[in-house]
Design a protein that fits this description.
Two copies of one chain form a homodimer.
Chain A: H1 3-17, E1 22-25, H2 28-35, E2 43-47, E3 51-54, H3 57-66, E4 72-73, H4 78-88, E5 94-96, H5 103-111, E6 115-116, H6 120-126, H7 131-150, H8 160-173, E7 178-179, E8 184-187, E9 207-213, E10 215-217, E11 220-221, E12 224-230, H9 235-254, H10 261-274, E13 286-288, E14 295-299, E15 312-315, E16 318-321, E17 325-328, E18 331-335, E19 340-342
Parallel strand pairs in A: 1-5, 3-4, 5-6
Antiparallel strand pairs in A: 1-2, 2-3, 7-10, 8-9, 9-12, 10-11, 13-14, 15-18, 16-17, 18-19
Helix pairs in contact in A: 7-8, 9-10
Chain lengths: 345, 345
């Protein structure tokens, strides 16, 4: 049984446990997670014992060649085909996941008597297992290594966008499919914008360099941020860097199974606040990372989840002095029972 | 007034025309279209005379530096902040666009008394104007030129993925930000899968080569497909190629303002059916292309739109002989009053 077949079984087991007859799976992300076939425009119906996949005619041959444990069909109307199967099988309690559904399709399901049920696939996805962990480790390793290769090549006059492209090339040469998001490369004052859009601004002597990047390797995302000073840093940069660095280490130290996500945020935030820079740490501390660059759980002041062994999360505090510079330091880490493994190393 | 300011005014004019007090704009795509600031996680409220933008604190400085005609604010809860503004201003008829909304947010709007209203922003987006047209022309030109550069470099032994990467590099060197979708490069039997996932399969002598690709230039997508034979084509490939080529030309010839989208599909489909290959043309004929790689209008047997001057659409019939080869020929074209301009040239 391959990993996707196992996940489908895990989901069917969950349906049994929750006393649900069936669920519809509408999004390519979850469909890819459950079958290995990731394509916009098909629809799955999963019962406790069966699986149906409805898709356009042009997907069928390709689907068959990749997925040998689910039979595809190509009805004229996928949504109506799912409803027909639900009726034929006399499923009484069929659900959809409100957090993954579009408004129009969700309205359709409701009108047809389906019920909302949150978190079924998200729960399966948050805890990584088996091959997922080694793939994530490799994805993070590629990113960490790319930083070491690119850093000595970042000289005065290079543009942010040229560094972004070189990072992508380096990661692709190591086997990555592409970047895991629009890479954020910020020089000088651009580093003070947490979501800066990488531009053609050239690097000058004595400026901060912030690189927030990652790749997709075998479907899984990595996420890393490194900040350093190009030239001779002044006292302010040195001070801010040391605070963010210590805060990030305090956060990473806090990560282990059983700990509340908010406690990791608190560890970083208190350190930065105590150092007098609390108002300049203007975002959450981290997020889950996996098939999506941002996924469950979240690590911020309001989050209520508990870390479980096998989760992969980022720890990424920052201080942003608008108009001057920003410092963010980020690692992706794997939660373990007694602590965590830093993957972006 | 820049293009974004003009679009906001166009939208406000539409609100007036439709007798709507205000609308919420939730998706980065539409927000970017209206302001030039494209970022996941903010929310806009547009009335006939005012615009509000609610966002996380960390976006505010960046937003201000890019958008000088809308004032941002950073409330604790963006959705509740929008509702508060609606109440303060006594807006009676505030709408959201069901086709762009997520299920959970749509449910929230409904509970708060907002109404569904389709197609406001899609209508503005479908017809391109001013700078959009020259940007799209350039985006398509880059793709078309990249094909001419890469073709002589595709030799026996090269893998699909290596060709995909080289195409991306060539297009980036010409100013593209990146690919406009996961490029589809199919050799031999892989060309017979319309949505083939580009693999590390090497090219052999005497195989079909299908390249379906495009780039994002200045935010706008191009889309082009070229098919040819690597080696000496047999009679079957020559025949199928000639049919698809003639069908595609028939489709392009049909495109002009005032023509039904289904009529373009019919022109391609009838040609292929009359040649005896109707059952192997297993997808629609085309789609709009712009900020999204697939956008309004659609060109297939069921579509009901009418082409308008300024729309940019693809014309891309194909014949797929599973296990052997496929041929698809695609151009992006600009609809004009008396015909169309082929952009991917």
């Amino acid at each position: 049984m391959n990993i996707h077949e196992k996940r489908l079984k895990d989901l069917q087991h969950l349906l049994k446990k929750e006393k649900l007859d069936a669920m519809v799976v509408s999004r390519p992300l979850e469909q890819g997670f459950l079958t290995g076939y990731h394509m916009d425009g098909y629809l799955m119906l999963v019962s406790q014992t069966d699986v149906w996949a409805f898709m356009p005619k042009m997907f069928v041959d390709q689907f068959r060649s990749k997925v040998d444990f689910v039979s595809p069909s190509a009805p004229d109307n996928q949504l109506e085909a799912a409803i027909l199967k639900i009726r034929e099988n006399k499923f009484r309690k069929t659900v959809f996941e409100p957090e993954t559904e579009s408004y129009l399709r969700g309205q359709f399901w409701r009108k047809k008597g389906l019920l909302e049920f949150k978190g079924l696939t998200a729960g399966l996805r948050a805890v990584k297992e088996g091959a997922e962990i080694s793939i994530l480790r490799k994805s993070c390793h590629i990113a960490a290594k790319a930083f070491k290769i690119v850093k000595p090549r970042i000289k005065s006059g290079r543009t942010e966008i040229s560094v972004s492209r070189e990072l992508e090339d380096i990661m692709q040469a190591m086997g990555a499919k592409g970047p895991s998001f629009n890479l954020i490369i910020g020089f000088g004052p651009d580093s003070a914008l947490p979501h800066h859009e990488t531009s053609d601004r050239p690097l000058k002597k004595n400026e901060a360099v912030l690189l927030d990047f990652g790749c997709v390797y075998n479907g899984y995302c990595s996420d890393i941020t490194r900040t350093y000073f190009h030239g001779k840093p002044g006292a302010e940069f040195k001070k801010v860097y040391a605070i963010v660095d210590a805060a990030q280490k305090a956060g990473v130290k806090k990560v282990k199974a059983g700990v509340k996500t908010a406690a990791v945020d608190k560890a970083c935030r208190e350190y930065i606040s105590d150092a007098g820079f609390g108002q300049y740490f203007i975002h959450g501390t981290g997020h889950g990372v996996g098939l999506e660059i941002h996924e469950s759980p979240t690590l911020n002041t309001k989050s209520r989840e508990t870390l479980r062994a096998g989760m992969t999360v980022t720890v990424e505090p920052g201080i942003y002095l608008y108009g001057k510079f920003g410092v963010r330091i980020e690692d992706s880490v794997l939660v373990k029972s007694g602590g965590c493994e830093i993957l972006t190393r």
